[in-house]
UniProtKB/TrEMBL annotation, chain A:
Cell compartment(s), UniProt: Cell membrane; Membrane
Major localisation: membrane
Gene Ontology annotations of biological process type: ATP synthesis coupled electron transport
Keyword tRNA-binding: no
Uppermost EC category: translocase
GO molecular function per UniProt: NADH dehydrogenase (quinone) (non-electrogenic) activity; quinone binding
Self-association state and partner proteins as the record states: NDH-1 is composed of 14 different subunits. Subunits NuoA, H, J, K, L, M, N constitute the membrane sector of the complex.
Organism: Candidatus Segetimicrobium genomatis
Chain's gene name: nuoK
InterPro entries per UniProt: NADH_UbQ_OxRdtase_chain4L/K (IPR001133), NUOK/Mnh_C1-like (IPR039428)
This protein's name: NADH-quinone oxidoreductase subunit K
EC numbers for this chain: 7.1.1.-
Family: Belongs to the complex I subunit 4L family.
TM ranges: 6-24, 31-51, 63-87
Automatic annotation (TrEMBL), chain C:
Family indicated by similarity: Belongs to the complex I subunit 6 family.
Natural source organism: Candidatus Segetimicrobium genomatis
Protein name per Swiss-Prot or TrEMBL: NADH-quinone oxidoreductase subunit J
GO cellular component terms, semicolon-separated: plasma membrane
Membrane topology: Multi-pass membrane protein
Enzyme class, broadest EC rank: translocase
Length: 103, 399, 163, 642
C-alpha cells in the first residue's frame, strides 16, 4: 500500500486539532504557545505534503514552510518575551487572571 | 523485504559506530585528556594500568558500569533517566554524516545526506534539550543553574557555529560533507587556507577567520574551557550532571566527548581537507612544522617547566616534518596516496582534539558576561562580515 | 510496505507526545514532549523528501524554540506547575470543538480529489529552495529577514528590566 | 576644437550655479571660480579664432521641438564674425572680472555679483554662438535679464532700482518688435535657421516690402538693446549700476549685441528693396551718433559722459553698417569694445579714488594716479580717433564709407567725430588736469588688481586697430577676415584719413582751449549758446516726451482700472458674501436641531446596544477562539452537506 497525500493531511489535521485543543483549554500562556507551535507544524506538514504530491517541480511549499518556521521563531521569541514581561508585572502567566483590560 | 535489510544495516552501522566512538571518543578521549593535562601541568598522568596507563579509562568504565544508579528523591524520574540518553544519542548521531576516508572510490560514510553539515548542526542543537532536561530534572539548584547556563551558552554559540558552517558551505557550494571535501580537492586548497584565486594571498584571512570562528564556537558548544561555565567544577560542582552516577554519568561523558570529537571531525572536514593529503597544498608542511616550532618557542618562553610541556609539541612538529618529507618523496616517487586516507583523517581530527584539550588546560574560565559578549559582539559580527566579504569575492571573481 | 511502516511509526512519534503536550498537567514534561513531536514531523519531512526543511525544523524547533519555552518556564513560575490548575473551564467545549474539527477535516480531506501530479522533487532540492528564495520569493525573503530583526529588537526591549 | 565650442558658454554657466549655491565657501568667495571659468572660455575662443582664421567653419544643429510640421532647431555655428565676438567678449570680460575683484571688494553681495557676471557672460556667449533666431533670442533675453539684475545690483538705492526697471522696460519695447520680426520670419520662411532664412532671401521667396518689414522689426530689437534713438533713454540711467557692469554690459558687449544682430542678419537688410532697411539703420545710427555726442558735452557725471559716448559710438557702428560698411561697423564694434571698456574701468578707478562721479569736483588727478591717467588718455585718444590708436582705423573707415555712400550721413558722422573728441577731452581735462576742486576727497592710485587690467586694455586699445590697418602688401587683414561679399569696403584713402585726424585734432584742440588753457571760459560759452545749452541739458527732452506720451496715459488708465476694481468688483464680491452669511445663519438652525439631533439619536442607540452587548465580550481570547473554531466547523459542515 502506498502512503498518499491524504494520509499526511490526516496526520496534519490531527496534530492541528491537538494544538487547537491545547490553545483552547490551557491556562498557562506558555502552554498556549506550545499549542500554537503544534498548529504551525501541522500547517507546515500540509504545505510540504502538497509540494511533494501536487506540484513536485516547484518548491513553493518548502519555501513557505521555511518562512513559517522563521516566523514561528519570531513569534515564540516575542511571545515569550511578552509572557516574561507580564509575569514581571502581574506575578502570573495564567491568561484568565490577566484581565486588566476587561470591563 | 529491502527496507528490513536497510533497517538492519542501519542498526548494524549504528552499533559499530557507537562502539567505535564509545571506545575512541570517550575512553581514548578521557585518556588523552588526562595525559595531556599531565604534560601541561608537568605531571605524568595515568601510568600504572597498561603501558603508559593506556587501560586506565577501560578500568574506569568497568567501575562505572558496576556502580549503582541513584535517582534523587524529588527528581522527575522519567526525564532524569531519559536526559543522558538524549545527549549520548544526539552526540553519536552526529557521526552519521562524518566521512572517515576513502577506499578506492568509495567514501567511508554512513550516509552522505545532501544536508550533511546542517544535519550536524541540528543534532548538536538537540543535545541542549538533554542537558537542560537533565539539569532541571535533578531537582538540584547547581544542576539547574548549570543546565540553564549551558543552554543559554549553546544557544548563543550555535549562531557563530552556523556562520562558520555556512561559510564552508558557501565556498564549497554544497551542504554535503563529502561534497565539501571534494570541493576542497577540486579547488586545490583546504578551506582554512582557501585562496580565492585572483586575489591570491589576500584571500587567506577569510578562511582562517572562518575556521577560527568555527573552532571557538565549537569549543563553547562542547562546554570546554574557557567556556566551561555550565560545568564549572569550582562553582557548580559539576553543573548539570552533578546528580548523575554510574553509567548515566558515563553517558553524559560519552556524549560530551563524542560531541567534541564530532566537532573536531567536522572542522577537519570543512576546513582541513577531510581525509585528503596535505600535499594538496605545497606549503602545508612548512606551515605545520613551522607552526609547531613557533608554538614550542612560545611555550619555552613562558614561565612553566618546559621539558614535559614542550615534548608533545616538538613531537607534533617532528611528526609534521616527517609526514611532510614522506609525502614529498612519496609524491615525487609517484604514489598517489602515501598514507591511507583514514590515517590522514584521524591525524587531523586528533590534532584538533589536542588543540581543544590544550586550550582547556591553558586558559582560565570566562565570566558569563564576557562569554555572551564574545558571542554576540565579536564572533557574530566577525562571522557575518567574513561571510559577506567572502561572498562578495566569490561573486566578483568566481570560485 | 517499508514506507508505510516508517510513516506509521513517525505519525505515532508525532501524535502521542503531542497529546502529552496538550494534556499533561506537568508543564515541563509538556514542553519536553514537544521534542519528539518535532522530531516526528522532521521524519515526515524527510519522507516527503524535504531534507532541508527537516534540518531547519530540528535546528529551530527542537533546538531553539523548545529551549526557549523551557527557559521561560524556568524563569516565570518555575517548577512543574502541578499544583496550579492548568486547564480552564472550557475543556469540554474545546475538546468537542477539536474532535469535531478533526472529524470534519478528515472527511474533507478524504472526500476531496486532490490533483496529485506524478513526478519527484529535484533530487538535491536545497539548491532549488535557495534559488526560489533568491529569485521568485526574494521579496518574502527580505520581508522575513526584516521581521526577524524587528522581533529580535522587540523581544529584547520587551523582556529587558527597566532599571 | 570647433566642435567643442559649446563649452564656451557652458563654463561660465556652470560657474554661475556653483557660485550661486556654494557662494562664500568658494576660493575668493567665488571670484576665482568665475574668472577661471571665463579664462578657460577665453583660451578656447582664442584657439577657435586661430582655427577660423585658417578657414575653419563649424555648425551643429539638433531639433528641439516640432511645432506642427515645422521643426524648432537649436544649434551653434562658428564663423569669423562669431569668432571675433567670442574673442572680444571673453577677453574683455575676463579683464573686467579681474578688475571687479578690486572694485567690488568688501561688497555685502560680493559672490552674487560674480554669479550674475558669469550668467551674463554665459548668455552673451550663447547669443553670439547661436545659429538661429531662437537661441539668439534666448541669449538676447538672458542678457537683458542680467542687465536688469546688475543695474539694480545696489537695489537699496531707489535710483538704481528705478534705472534697472527703466532699462528693462525700454529694451522690452525693442524686443517686442524683434519678436514680431522673428515670428514673421518663422511663418513666412518656416524655419529660424539663419542660413535657411538667408537662402530664402537669396532665392527671392522672401522679398519686397515683407522683407523690409522683417528687417526693420528685427532692427527694432537692435535699437532697444543698442540704445539707439528713440530707445536710448535707458542707457544713461543704467550708469547707476557698478562701474564694471557699465564697462562690461553697457559699453563692451551687451549694447553691442544690437550691432551684432544687424551684422548677423545683414543679408536681410542688404537685400531689402534699394537698401531701404539699411538706409533706416544708417540714418538712425547717424542721428544717434551726433545727438548723443552733443548731449555728452554737457554732462558732469563722468560715467554719464561715457554712457552718451557709448550711445554715439553705437550709432557710428549702425551708421557704418548702414552705409554698406559691413566690415567697418564690425571692426568699430571690436575696437570700441576695448577702448570703451578701458575708459569705463579708468573712470571706475577714478570714482574709486574720489568717491564721487562729478568731474567738476575732480582735477589734477594726473599726478595722484598716473596709471589711470595714462590709460585713460590712451582710451580717450582711441575714442577721439587719433592714429594709431584703435578708434582711428575703424571710425575712419566708417566715415569713408559714409562719404562714398551718402553725404548727409557723412556730415552727421564728421560732426559727431568732432564733438566726440571735444567731450572726451573735456572730461579728461576736467578730471586729470588743473587742481583738485573737492576738499573732502583724498584720491589715491587704485590697487594693482584694478590697474593691471587697465594697462592690458590700454595695450589692446593701442594696437588692436592695426589689424584693420591697410598694411603694404598685406592689405586690411581684418577686412579680409570679416567681410560681406556684396558690400565691399572702399579702399583706404590717405587724404581722407588726414581729414578725419584733423577733425579729431580740432575737437581736442577746442576742448583744450576751453578747459585746459581756459582761454574761453565755459561759462561764457554757456551764456552765448544758451538755447543750444538748454536743449542739450534737457537731453532733447526725450524723457519728458516719454513722460507725457507714454507714462501719464498708462498711469491714468491704471487708476481708472483701480477705481473699477475697488467699487465694481469688490462690491459684487462683498454682496455675494453678505448673502451667503445670511444663508448660513439659516442653515445653522437646521444643523443644530435636525442634523445634530439625528447624530445624537444614533449615538444614543449605539450606546444602549453596546451596554446590552458588552457582556458577550469576556475579554479572554480563548473564548473568542473557541467561537471561531465552532464557526469554522459549522461552515465546513454546511459546505459538506451541500
Amino acid at each position: 500500500m502506498q502512503v498518499g497525500l491524504t494520509s499526511y493531511l490526516i496526520v496534519a489535521a490531527l496534530l492541528f486539532c491537538l494544538g487547537l485543543y491545547g490553545v483552547l483549554t490551557r491556562r498557562n500562556a506558555v502552554a498556549i504557545l506550545m499549542g500554537i507551535e503544534l498548529m504551525l507544524n501541522a500547517a507546515n506538514i500540509n504545505l510540504v505534503a502538497f509540494n511533494r504530491f501536487v506540484a513536485p517541480a516547484a518548491v513553493a511549499g518548502q519555501v513557505f514552510a521555511l518562512v513559517i518556521i522563521t516566523l514561528a521563531a519570531c513569534e515564540a521569541a516575542v511571545g515569550l518575551a511578552l509572557v516574561m514581561a507580564a509575569y514581571r508585572s502581574l506575578e502570573t502567566i495564567q491568561v484568565d487572571e490577566i484581565n486588566l483590560m476587561k470591563w | 523485504m529491502p527496507w528490513l535489510i536497510e533497517l538492519l544495516k542501519a542498526i548494524g552501522l549504528a552499533v559499530v559506530i557507537f562502539t567505535f566512538l564509545a571506545v575512541v571518543a570517550a575512553m581514548l578521549g578521557v585518556y588523552l585528556e588526562r595525559k595531556i593535562s599531565g604534560w601541561i601541568q608537568a605531571r605524568l598522568g595515568p601510568k600504572h594500568i597498561g603501558p603508559q596507563g593506556l587501560l586506565q579509562t577501560v578500568a574506569d568504565t568497568v567501575k562505572l558500569l558496576q556502580k549503582e544508579h541513584i535517582t534523587p528523591r524529588h527528581a522527575d524520574a522519567l526525564i532524569f533517566n531519559v536526559a543522558p540518553v538524549i545527549v549520548a544519542v544526539a552526540a553519536l548521531l552526529d557521526w552519521v554524516v562524518i566521512p572517515f576516508g576513502k577506499l578506492g572510490d568509495r567514501v567511508l560514510v554512513v550516509r552522505d545526506i545532501n544536508i550533511g553539515v546542517l544535519y550536524f548542526a541540528a543534532m548538536s542543537s538537540v543535545i541542549v534539550i538533554g542537558i537542560i532536561a537533565g539539569g532541571w530534572s535533578s531537582n538540584n539548584k547547581y544542576a539547574l543553574l548549570g543546565g540553564l547556563r549551558s543552554a543559554s551558552q549553546m544557544i548563543s554559540y550555535e549562531i557563530p557555529l552556523a556562520l562558520g558552517i555556512l561559510w564552508a558551505a558557501m565556498v564549497a557550494g554544497t551542504l554535503s560533507t563529502v561534497g565539501i571535501v571534494d570541493a576542497q580537492v577540486r579547488q586545490g586548497s583546504w578551506f582554512m587556507f582557501k585562496l580565492p584565486s585572483p586575489i591570491g594571498w589576500f584571500g587567506l584571512p577569510f578562511g582562517i577567520l572562518a575556521s577560527l570562528t568555527f573552532l571557538t564556537a565549537a569549543t563553547a558548544e562542547v562546554n570546554r574551557v574557557p567556556f566551561d561555565l555550565p560545568e564549572a567544577e569550582s562553582e557548580l560542582v559539576a553543573g548539570y550532571f552533578a546528580e548523575y552516577t554510574g553509567m548515566r554519568f558515563a553517558l553524559f561523558q560519552l556524549g560530551e566527548y563524542g560531541e567534541m570529537f564530532g566537532m573536531a571531525a567536522v572542522a577537519t572536514i570543512m576546513f582541513f581537507g577531510g581525509w585528503t593529503e596535505p600535499h594538496l597544498q605545497p606549503y602545508m608542511w612548512l606551515l605545520v612544522t613551522l607552526g609547531c616550532l613557533v608554538v614550542a618557542a612560545v611555550i619555552l618562553t613562558t614561565g612553566l617547566r618546559q621539558t614535559l610541556l614542550v615534548r608533545p609539541i616538538l613531537m607534533l612538529a617532528g611528526l609534521g616534518l616527517l609526514l611532510s618529507l614522506v609525502m614529498f618523496f612519496g609524491t615525487r616517487a609517484g604514489l598517489s596516496q602515501v598514507l591511507p586516507s583514514l590515517m590522514w583523517f584521524l591525524a587531523k581530527m586528533f590534532a584538533l582534539v589536542f588543540f581543544l584539550m590544550w586550550m582547556r588546560w591553558t586558559y582560565p574560565r570566562l565570566r558569563l558576561d564576557q562569554l555572551l559578549t564574545l558571542s554576540w559582539k565579536v564572533l557574530l559580527p566577525l562571522g557575518l562580515l567574513n561571510l559577506l566579504a567572502t561572498g562578495f569575492v566569490l561573486t566578483v571573481w568566481g570560485r | 510496505m517499508g514506507e508505510l511502516a516508517a510513516f506509521m511509526i513517525l505519525s505515532l512519534v508525532t501524535l502521542i507526545p503531542a497529546v502529552v503536550v496538550v494534556t499533561s498537567s506537568n508543564i515541563v514534561r509538556a514542553a519536553l514532549s514537544l521534542v519528539p513531536t518535532f522530531l516526528g514531523v522532521t521524519g515526515l519531512y524527510v519522507m516527503l523528501q524535504a531534507e532541508f526543511v527537516a534540518g531547519i525544523q530540528v535546528l529551530i524547533y527542537a533546538g531553539a524554540i523548545t529551549v526557549l519555552i523551557l527557559f521561560v518556564i524556568m524563569l516565570t513560575e518555575g517548577g512543574t506547575g502541578v499544583r496550579t490548575r492548568q486547564l480552564n473551564d472550557q475543556v469540554p467545549l474545546g475538546a468537542m470543538a477539536a474532535v469535531w474539527l478533526a472529524f470534519v477535516l478528515i472527511v474533507i480531506f478524504t472526500r476531496t480529489g486532490w490533483p496529485t501530479a506524478a513526478g519527484v522533487l529535484p533530487a538535491y532540492n536545497v539548491v532549488a529552495v535557495g534559488n526560489a528564495f533568491l529569485s521568485d520569493y526574494v521579496l518574502i525573503f527580505e520581508v522575513t529577514s526584516v521581521v526577524l530583526l524587528v522581533s529580535l529588537v522587540g523581544a529584547i526591549v520587551i523582556a529587558r528590566r527597566e532599571d | 576644437m570647433l566642435q567643442v565650442a559649446w563649452l564656451i558658454p557652458l563654463l561660465p554657466f556652470i560657474a554661475f550655479w556653483v557660485i550661486l549655491f556654494r557662494g562664500r565657501r568658494l576660493p575668493g568667495e567665488g571670484a576665482y571660480v568665475a574668472i577661471g571659468a571665463l579664462g578657460l572660455s577665453g583660451l578656447l575662443s582664442l584657439v577657435i579664432l586661430g582655427q577660423v582664421m585658417f578657414g575653419g567653419r563649424y555648425q551643429a544643429t539638433m531639433v528641439w521641438a516640432t511645432m506642427g510640421d515645422r521643426p524648432l532647431a537649436v544649434g551653434y555655428a562658428v564663423d569669423p564674425l562669431t569668432a571675433v565676438m567670442l574673442f572680444v567678449v571673453t577677453v574683455v570680460g575676463s579683464l573686467i572680472f579681474i578688475y571687479s575683484v578690486g572694485y567690488m571688494h568688501g561688497d555685502p553681495r560680493y559672490p552674487r555679483f560674480f554669479a550674475y557676471l558669469s550668467l551674463f557672460a554665459a548668455s552673451m556667449l550663447l547669443l553670439v554662438l547661436a545659429n538661429n533666431f531662437l537661441v539668439l533670442y534666448a541669449g538676447w533675453e538672458l542678457v537683458g535679464l542680467c542687465s536688469y539684475l546688475l543695474i539694480g545690483f545696489w537695489f537699496e538705492r531707489p535710483a538704481a532700482a528705478r534705472a534697472s526697471m527703466k532699462a528693462f522696460v525700454t529694451t522690452r519695447v525693442g524686443d517686442f518688435f524683434m519678436f514680431l520680426g522673428i515670428l514673421l520670419l518663422f511663418f513666412t520662411v518656416g524655419s529660424l535657421q539663419f542660413d535657411a532664412v538667408f537662402a530664402a532671401v537669396q532665392t527671392g521667396s522672401l522679398a519686397g516690402p515683407l522683407l523690409t518689414l522683417a528687417a526693420v522689426l528685427i532692427f527694432g530689437g537692435a535699437v532697444g538693446k543698442s540704445a539707439q534713438i528713440p530707445l536710448h533713454v535707458w542707457l544713461p540711467d543704467a550708469m547707476e549700476g557698478p562701474t564694471p557692469v557699465s564697462a562690461l554690459i553697457h559699453a563692451a558687449t551687451m549694447v553691442a549685441a544690437g550691432v551684432y544682430l544687424v551684422a548677423r542678419t545683414y543679408e536681410l537688410f542688404f537685400s531689402s528693396p534699394d537698401h531701404l532697411a539699411l538706409t533706416v539703420v544708417a540714418y538712425i545710427g547717424g542721428l544717434t551718433a551726433l545727438m548723443a555726442a552733443t548731449i555728452g558735452i554737457v554732462q558732469d557725471d563722468i560715467k554719464r559722459v561715457l554712457a552718451y559716448s557709448t550711445i554715439s559710438q553705437l550709432g557710428y557702428m549702425m551708421l557704418g553698417l548702414g552705409v554698406l560698411g559691413y566690415t567697418a561697423g564690425v571692426f568699430h564694434l571690436m575696437t570700441h569694445a576695448f577702448f570703451k571698456a578701458l575708459l569705463f574701468l579708468a573712470a571706475g578707478s577714478v570714482i574709486h579714488a574720489m568717491n564721487t562721479n562729478d568731474i567738476k569736483e575732480m582735477g589734477g588727478l594726473a599726478k595722484v594716479m598716473p596709471v589711470t591717467y595714462v590709460t585713460m588718455l590712451v582710451g580717450g585718444l582711441a575714442l577721439a580717433g587719433v592714429p594709431p590708436f584703435a578708434g582711428f582705423w575703424s571710425k575712419d573707415e566708417i566715415l569713408l564709407e559714409a562719404y562714398h555712400h551718402d553725404r548727409t550721413l557723412f556730415y552727421l558722422g564728421a560732426a559727431g567725430a568732432f564733438v566726440t573728441a571735444f567731450y572726451v577731452f573735456r572730461m579728461i581735462f576736467y578730471t586729470f588736469t588743473g587742481s583738485l576742486r573737492s576738499h573732502t576727497a583724498h584720491p589715491h592710485e587704485s590697487p594693482q588688481v584694478m590697474t593691471v587690467p587697465l594697462i592690458v586694455l590700454a595695450a589692446f586699445s593701442g594696437v588692436i586697430g592695426l589689424v584693420g590697418a591697410p598694411w603694404p602688401l598685406v592689405g586690411n587683414m581684418f577686412h579680409r577676415f570679416v567681410h560681406f561679399e556684396a558690400a565691399e569696403g572702399a579702399p583706404f584713402d590717405l587724404r581722407f584719413a588726414a581729414l578725419s585726424t584733423a577733425i579729431a585734432g580740432a575737437g581736442i584742440l577746442a576742448a583744450a582751449v576751453v578747459y585746459r588753457w581756459q582761454l574761453v571760459s565755459s561759462a561764457t560759452l554757456r551764456r552765448v549758446l544758451a538755447p543750444a545749452y538748454a536743449v542739450l541739458v534737457h537731453k532733447y527732452w526725450w524723457d519728458e516726451f516719454y513722460a507725457v506720451s507714454v507714462v501719464r496715459p498708462v498711469v491714468w488708465v491704471a487708476q481708472q482700472l483701480r477705481t473699477f476694481d475697488v467699487y465694481a468688483i469688490d462690491g459684487a464680491v462683498n454682496a455675494i458674501g453678505v448673502v451667503f452669511v445670511w444663508l448660513s445663519r439659516l442653515y445653522r438652525v437646521f444643523d443644530l436641531y435636525v442634523v445634530d439631533g439625528a447624530v445624537n439619536l444614533v449615538g444614543w442607540l449605539a450606546k444602549a446596544a453596546g451596554g446590552r452587548l458588552r457582556h458577550v465580550q469576556t475579554g479572554r481570547a480563548q473564548n473568542y477562539l473557541l467561537v471561531i473554531a465552532l464557526g469554522v466547523i459549522v461552515l465546513a459542515v454546511i459546505g459538506l452537506t451541500r
